[in-house]
């Protein structure tokens, strides 16, 4: 065998070896990525409007960064904590009527019922109450209240709610012309 033929065979052998090693590495890295993906499914992942809030990216290939406000009440936990069941009662201070509810994620307060809500307090007798006036939801293990851009605003103990606030049992919530005393627990 000539020297050129020997060099050609060695070159082909090295080329085939490199291709086989590259292919095996590619296959193994794919399995590793699947394992990491499965491992991440067990972590608490915050998602707001389809965006992974902790990574603050729209998607792995898009490269666009999350620019919205992180508000607990429209943020979902994927494979995350289970919400507590809350018992809440509202007493209308003008009429004495008591409204009692049980809910897990949120309770809507407004003039019309909301279909996709756990619970909904309908105050249809007050024309100053917006259709979707405010919501009560669980945040950091406590109950919070957030105004839903209502036309006549929401007040807690006489203070206008501009950003979500924590509720305390006994707080007075003013929705339209209706004043409600909130009592709650798990």
UniProtKB/TrEMBL annotation:
A Pfam family of this chain: FHA
Keywords (A to Z) from UniProt: Membrane, Transmembrane, Transmembrane helix
Domain of life: Bacteria
SMART domains: FHA (SM00240)
Protein name as it appears in the record: FHA domain-containing protein
Top-level taxonomy: Bacteria, Bacillati, Bacillota, Clostridia, Lachnospirales
Record-annotated membrane-spanning stretches: 6-28
PROSITE patterns: FHA_DOMAIN
UniProt KW Cell inner membrane keyword: no
Domain FHA: 107-161
